[in-house]
Amino acid sequence: MAQAVEEWYKQMPIITRSYLTAAIVTTIGCSLEIISPYNLYLNPKLVVKHYQFWRLITNFLYFRKMDLDFLFHMFFLARYCKLLEENSFRGRTADFFYMLLFGATVLTGIVLIGGMIPYVSESFARIIFLSNSLTFMMVYVWSKQNPFIHMSFLGLFTFTAAYLPWVLLGFSVLVGASAWVDLLGMIAGHAYYFLEDVYPRMTGRRPLKTPAFIKSLFAEEPVVMARPANVRFAPPPVDQVPPN
Predict the structure, then answer these.
(1) Is 17 helix (H, G, I), strand (E, B) or coil?
(2) Cα separation of 224 and 91, whole Å?
(3) Closest Cα partner for 74 from 127, 25, 108, 110?
(4) Is residue 103 within 8 Å of residue 189, measured between CB atoms?
(5) What Cα–Cα distance (Å) separates residue 182 from each residue in 21, 57, 130, 170?
(6) Which residue ranges traverse the bilayer (predicted)?
(7) Domain spans, the chain
(8) pTM for this structure?
(9) What class does CATH assign to 2-218?
(10) Which residues sit opposite 150 in a β-bridge?
């Protein structure tokens, strides 16, 4: 069993494995009181006035208590982050990292701006960890890119992947969780989907092109196409055969 888990972990792509490891280590560290959540949560005043810039990152790593909700989000993080990185972003690690960076920036911006708007500022002030929202963003992007896959919710009913975010949002409401967290993830996910998939088809321009300095951080892995066995390929034309 342990060997199977180790093999499964090693086979994860780099971004998924790194994020999942950081999230588990951070959450366990807080549960054991090795790390204090008060040093991790998003606090604009501490970021701006006291230069605690790490909070812009650490608030995406802590998933609250080690309970069923934690396991639920770890499953979705491991599953949909892995599916995106291995399929939609296969051989494009830098683009996948840029997607997560874009989502984290949008979520942070929404919370900061929302905290300055009267009547809703108190609601946004309660959102101090955005880890669940970023996970939900990945679920939303995956559902948009794979809308016709058939799925089942707890064996109760079936639906296509296009409705997965709404099914999960309804489930969160039923169990008494805050809908704001999931809605923020859906907003960030839709912003990425529109700018990356819809807008380029409409205008021919791609506003979310990954910057060169981010591409330089990752060694792009070429996608290798396997040659079918026992299949003969036609020889090259005569004019392309190099002379002896």
Answers:
(1) helix
(2) 9
(3) 25
(4) yes
(5) 22, 19, 10, 10
(6) 19-41, 96-117, 123-141, 148-168, 174-195
(7) 2-218
(8) 0.83
(9) mainly alpha
(10) 160
Structure tokens at 99: 């997607």
DSSP state of 61: T
- Contacts of residues 83-92 at CB distance under 8 Å and 24 or more positions apart, as own/partner, are 83/142, 84/138, 84/141, 84/142, 84/145, 85/13, 85/15, 85/16, 86/13, 88/141, 88/142, 88/145, 90/223, 91/220, 91/221, 91/222, 91/223, 92/220
Q: What is the pLDDT along the chain (244 residues), one digit of tens a residue?
A: 677 778 888 888 999 999 999 999 999 999 898 999 999 999 888 998 999 999 999 999 998 777 777 887 888 888 899 999 999 899 899 999 999 999 999 999 998 888 788 777 777 778 889 999 999 999 999 999 999 999 887 777 888 999 999 988 888 788 777 778 889 999 999 999 999 999 999 988 889 999 999 998 887 655 444 444 454 444 444 444 455 4
Beta bridge partners of 159: 151
CA distance 151 to 153: 7
- Of 126, 133, 98, the C-alpha closest to 218 is 98
Structure tokens at 176: 């008494």
Strand partners for 157: 153
